[in-house]
Amino acid sequence: MAEHDWMSDVRSLVGRQYGRIYAWDRVNEAMIRQWCEMMGVDNPLYTDTDYARNTEHGGIVAPPAMLQVWCMEGPEMNHYPPGSTDEDPYEVLKLIEAQGYPSVVAVNSELDFTRYVRVGERLYYTTRLEAIGEEKTTALGTGFFVTLIMSFFSELEAGEDEKVGEMLFRVFKFRPAERPQTQADAVGEQASKGENEAAPAPIPRPRPGISDDTRFFWEGCRDGELRIQRCTACGELQHPPGPVCSHCHSFELDSVAVSGKGQLYSFVVMHYPEVPPFDTPNPIGLIELDEGVRLIAGLVDVDPGGLEIGQRLEVELRRFGDDLTLPLFRPAAARADCE
């Protein structure tokens, strides 16, 4: 594929180094503890002062996977602390977008850790535009793979700042592929023109993959019960289901019907891509059941912008068609209001 004339200006940016982005806070125990709680990490090296003091590190260190977290801007976009550069390391994406490639999707990121970071260190990162690939056509559309390298440093009072890690971040900046017209589209167009009053057939919900390990779960939904796998050897519940107990490694497993009540542990709201038959925006929650296990499910009868961690939810086993019942969750008060 011949190179566009305008790409010469874009490619001239390859190799450019952008200035520092500082962390708002020095590495601190409170943020480490909160991150570990949210991620379910219980390594005492990160949270137990006495334990960490007796290790080679001499004190608490931050989990390596937190490296990117320290320098994030927070809820307000591009809100960085004083001393940070006002350069835009993503300017190349805007230049490509201006040529008719409006969409972007993160393809992958790779973190490399040089060493643990310690409590009290002040971190920053710089960004280098590493590469812009040749124009490629994928299932999403036609565009360019753009690779950025973020190098993370600890700022030292004396001597040269020390590199503590690096992140490769690659995105695909593309022009979405035109969706081929389906039979349903054709019927819809005819109906809008008055040539055919019949509405297009609704798109069905995708069916879950069912195995011998998960069959009890879907049969329970069909029968009006939310069933969770239980180990008969140690009595612990686990989800998602598996062939062996994740607690004691026993193969003696059955299931038990649970209340279906719990709280919102975490959530995301999907805005793009818009995929029928799902609603847009599409809220999806991680629900912590009162029985102690967590599961992922769609959220219904909610305001996507008003979701709150910890709000009470309850299951609704909603039927789709003749042979599919899915566990969805709605605010616990919503059902009471309807009764």
UniProtKB/TrEMBL annotation:
Domain FAS1-like dehydratase: 14-147
Name of this protein: OB-fold domain-containing protein
Domain ChsH2 C-terminal OB-fold residues, every copy: 256-317
Residue ranges occupied by any ChsH2 rubredoxin-like zinc ribbon domain in the UniProt entry: 218-254
InterPro entries for the chain: ChsH2_C, ChsH2_Znr, FAS1-like_DH_region, HotDog_dom_sf, NA-bd_OB-fold, Thioester_dehydratase-like
Pfam families: FAS1_DH_region (PF13452), OB_ChsH2_C (PF01796), zf-ChsH2 (PF12172)
Region (Disordered): 180-211
